[in-house]
Each structure stands twice: as structure tokens, then as C-alpha cells.
Design brief:
single chain, 173 residues, mainly beta, 8-stranded mixed beta sheet, 5-stranded antiparallel beta sheet, 6% helix, globular
């Protein structure tokens, strides 16, 4: 493993807390609705928006799959709002985030998310693009619309290589 290779870790609420929220039903407040025929897993994440004329929108993004190992060469951030992603497929996916270091992304951290785990990335957090593994995947996305500049991209000149241990990958399939 070179000094520019990262090993993806399992996505947990604890390990991801500095970057956002993990969207998953275990441990969530459950409310019976529709005469007891439906369970609402309540308030799994909180959308955050600011800037001119902000509104929260719901979209579906269709993302192509990526092979492993993954070459991380682009990250982005959204200074005016959080961005939530929930996969609509059945394969695991990579989540890569970086702390900000004086306006540029710092050391990346990579997580392997199970097919039933989503994330809500805090505003202004550097993150990789949607990275489904196995097959292409649609994602339900909740993010900000409105005026102002809400996208910054950063091209990584010397890409990072992200690997996933076979035993970890097998646990999520």
C-alpha cells in the first residue's frame, strides 16, 4: 500500500459524525402511522440551507458504478447547504470526505456504506462524487436550491487510491 492509498472503513454514525449524519433506520425513533400499517422512522437527518432564496429540493441522481480500487481525483463541497444521499440500489457504495484545511481539502477518509445506509453531508464539507460499487445506482437526494454559489470543485493532482478489504466488501453484499 502506497502513502496515497486509503483503506475504506465501515460507515457508522460515530465514525462519520465530523462530516454529517448517517441515514439508517436502526436506532431511529419509530412512530406507527396509517392505522398501524406503516412505521415512520422519524427525523433521520436534518437538511440545512442558507444563502439567497434557499429552498430544500428532492431529486434522484443516476450514478454509474466505479471499479475498485477507486482513484479519488475530484472532491466538491456545498457551502450553502447540506446534501443527503440515500441509495435506491442493492450494492454497497463508497463515501469519501475530507476536512477543510485553509480552503482546500485535507486528508481524505473513506467509508464503505451498506445498501441500506445513506448520508447527510454537512454544509461546506469536502466530499467525493457518488461512487456506487457493483452496479449503477439511483440515489434519492435532498439538497439546496436557490441563489448564490453553492458548488466548489477541487481537482486532486495526485489521486488517492481507495481500496476495500474483500472481507468488508463481502459483509455488505
Amino acid at each position: 500500500m502506497s502513502d496515497r492509498t486509503l483503506q475504506a472503513q465501515p460507515l457508522t454514525a460515530f465514525s462519520f459524525a465530523a462530516f454529517g449524519e448517517v441515514i439508517e433506520t436502526p436506532g431511529a425513533r419509530q412512530i406507527a402511522i396509517n392505522r398501524g400499517k406503516c412505521i415512520r422512522h422519524h427525523a433521520l437527518a436534518t437538511a440545512q440551507v442558507s444563502g439567497p432564496d434557499p429552498s430544500v429540493v428532492i431529486s434522484i441522481f443516476s450514478a454509474s458504478s466505479y471499479p475498485l480500487p477507486h482513484a479519488l481525483d475530484l472532491v466538491e463541497r456545498h457551502p450553502l447547504g447540506s446534501q443527503a444521499f440515500y441509495p435506491l440500489g442493492s450494492d454497497p457504495w463508497l463515501v469519501t470526505v475530507c476536512q477543510d484545511e485553509n480552503g482546500v481539502p485535507g486528508l481524505p477518509q473513506s467509508f464503505l456504506a451498506a445498501p441500506d445506509q445513506g448520508i447527510n453531508i454537512f454544509p461546506n464539507t469536502w466530499h467525493g462524487v457518488l461512487t456506487p460499487l457493483g452496479s449503477a445506482c439511483d440515489f434519492l437526494v435532498v439538497d439546496r436550491a436557490g441563489g448564490g454559489e453553492n458548488l466548489e470543485e477541487f481537482v486532486i493532482d495526485e489521486p488517492w487510491t481507495i481500496e476495500v478489504a474483500e472481507d468488508l466488501y463481502a459483509r455488505f453484499r
